[in-house]
Hints:
This protein is an alpha/beta fold. The protein has 2 domains: 2-236 and 428-445, Glycogen Phosphorylase B (Rossmann fold, 3-Layer(aba) Sandwich), CATH 3.40.50; 248-426, 3-Layer(aba) Sandwich (Rossmann fold), CATH 3.40.50. It is 41% helix and 15% strand. It has 18 helices and 15 strands. Strand 13 (360-363) and strand 14 form a beta hairpin. Helix 5 packs across helix 8 (167-179) and helix 6 (121-133) packs parallel to helix 7.
Amino acid sequence: MRVVFVIWPAAAHLYPLVPLAWALKAAGHEVCVVSHASIAESTASMGLTPVSWCDPNSMPIPMGPGRPYPEERAELARVTEAMAFGPDDPDREHWDVLTQFYLPAMWDFIPYKGDPGEPMPAMDGLVEFTRTWKPDLVLWDPCIPGAAVAARASGAVQARWWTAPDVFCRSIDRFTEVTSRPGGPSVENPLVETVRPLADRYGVEIDDELLFGQWTVNQQPAAVGPEVSAQTLSMRWIPHARQEVMPDWMYPVPARPRVAVSLGLSERLFMEGGWAHIPALLEALSTLDVEVIATLNKTQLGAVSKIPDNVRVFDFVPLNQLMPTCSLLIHHGGMGTVMPAVANCVPQLVLDFVGNEISATALGGRMGRSRYSLGPALSRYLTETGAGLIIDVSKPSVDEMREQIMRVLTEPSFRQGVARMHNDLLATPSPAEFVPILERMVARHRQPDSTAH
């Protein structure tokens, strides 16, 4: 069987797929990863075959929400108004994440309401590759919905691959509910209008299978939600990242608790600002009898006048190496940061700008944001399972931070909460166990006249 992964070109989208890709290879299947050339070197370093969908000179490095898109955003604002979300409506959060963050990421490759007759270098290259290589299965990142068009145009089975709350399907489920009511608003489906130019270009019909895959593979715990209409298959998250030689300081583990601070690779690569709370956090940690390992760069430490004596700063440490030695993880609420801690039963504190709406602003090729897009969902999951607390960094207080850190470090209930999360993780099939599931799904959905490999 030939399998293609198609991803938005960022490490956070690459690392989670590596264990399944290697499980497929170990089972004798051919695997490649198709994306922008900017992620090719990282892909090859994972031992996987990268394929660039077009000449890198033919399109800039994708920035998604970092680009202004003023007309498109204005139209989405009108659709949002027509949706008439009520106060505290949980679907407003999902809708804002989709429209503020993920749809602009798609527009890097397919112009919103674009002309099907105009070239789309990345997606044209993807279609050409799938038609030539003839994969049996295309597993695609929802930020690249053109991959479903490429799969259908080449006769491949296709499924979404995702590692976070399915705001895509939930938001369109809600959109359909609202617009199909008697007297409902007459507005266009923004996901459909994003996919339409490419679908029309290749004569592919837009239906639910094209938008949401013939099924969805999602590594996030089902309890994170939201509930969606799409068929979803769960697979265990195996923590993986770029690996480095294990440093000498990692072991033996110190007698006093080790606390990790990690605010995400995507945060510092694509986001502008939002680090004003770090001095207060380090000050709170400086007064405690703990060892702190902080994976922060110069930009994030810009407002810090002096690194405390008990804090060691590194640009990057693989979390799968670090977490087994830690008693607490303090982070921004990213799934790729949460799951290594869950896999090692480490309680957590989430830094969140509580009370702010979820929004993204283009700032010269980077992105400003009111809060991390997935932070609220992950915060709820952690607090509802008793595995951690939320630190409100919209109004950082050294005393409150210190109190919350000590609570999570010392109260047994938080370790019990994360143990429940760990048991839920182990209840899902591992990548090796998931390969036969994929094989059966491909056999079930393969067209009778398609070519098997």
